[in-house]
Design brief:
Blueprint: H1 2-25, H2 29-80, E1 83-87, E2 93-97, E3 109-110, H3 112-116, E4 123-125, E5 130-133, E6 139-141
Antiparallel strand pairs: 1-2, 2-3, 4-5, 5-6
Length: 155
């Protein structure tokens, strides 16, 4: 399509140059009027071609952006399929890497909030009971507490 626009643009430019040279050859008022009219039409057409070229450039850029976005979604789909939503000992839901998908990676878990946002954020152990997400700052209890608590008085 770019070749067609470039060729049309060149043809219009040549036609404009020819009509300009015709003005110098003939002095008849009727010919001069028609040549001026033709120049106006050609210049309008040239403007439309320039506009079409700009639109085509914008569309080509947008197609590239959309293709990149699709590739990103495909990569995330492939990466996210390596994880399964699992329930911890305490009942908290986290994403754990599937054993068959682990390969040489250490066993790890991902933050469910970040995962649902399409981001892989590894949970870091805070202590034996809690894991933290460094990205969204969520703290997840993964094991029951061994500290005995007094029941709250009922009012």
């Amino acid at each position: 399509m770019m070749d067609w626009i470039g060729g049309a643009y060149s043809g219009i430019k040549a036609a404009t140059d020819i009509t300009q040279s015709m003005l110098t050859l003939k002095t008849d008022a009727a010919v001069t009027t028609k040549v001026v009219e033709l120049n106006g039409v050609l210049l309008g057409l040239q403007s439309q071609l320039n506009s079409a070229h700009a639109d085509q450039t914008t569309l080509t850029r947008r197609i590239g952006e959309l293709e990149a976005e699709i590739a990103k979604f495909k990569r995330w789909e492939q990466e996210s399929s390596r994880y399964a939503l699992t329930q911890t000992e305490f009942g908290t839901l986290i994403y754990r890497i599937r054993p068959e998908a682990r390969g040489s990676e250490p066993e790890h878990s991902l933050c469910p909030t970040c995962f649902n946002d399409g981001v892989k954020s590894v949970l870091q152990r805070y202590n034996s009971i809690y894991m933290n997400c460094l990205r969204c700052k969520m703290s997840l209890q993964v094991k029951p507490s061994t500290i005995s608590r007094k029941p709250r008085p009922r009012v």
